[in-house]
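**User:**
If convenient, please work through this fold.
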Amino acid sequence: MKKLLLIVTLLFSSTLVAKEDPIYSSFFGGAIDGYDAVAYFTKGKAVEGSKKITLEYKGATWRFASEGNRDLFKASPEKYEPQYGGYCAYAMSDNRFVSIDGEAWYIEDGKLYLNYSKSVQKHWLEQKDTFIQEADSNWNHYWTEIK
């Protein structure tokens, strides 16, 4: 019974992610927990994607609310994909890979940033310029190391 509990805990842990995964992908939701990456830009809000409208990109399944959004993403994924592979921007500033809440998002200079929660995001926003600079450095350093 203890083994089963451990396995279930590991499968559903929101912060247990493999560092080698370039895109944050949850067990059931896919990339960025199943939220439509394009909708943040076109609708100005978090919109859950459909299980029927998907695209494989960077080893993850991305969901979209419409075929139009999927096509926009497919044509220019670098325009819509979140920073740090969709991992929490605040945690990345501390060199940690942490899951996100798709409702805790922010667009700065045309880039999508996601956070673990709205309360974490509130703290992140207070010093976002510093945190973005630190997260950029950590993210780039990590990917340089594993190449």
Residues 82-147 form one domain. The first helix runs from residue 2 to 12. Confidence is low (pLDDT under 50) at residues 2-19. The helical segments are 2-12, 39-42, 67-75, 77-80, 89-93, 118-126, 128-146.
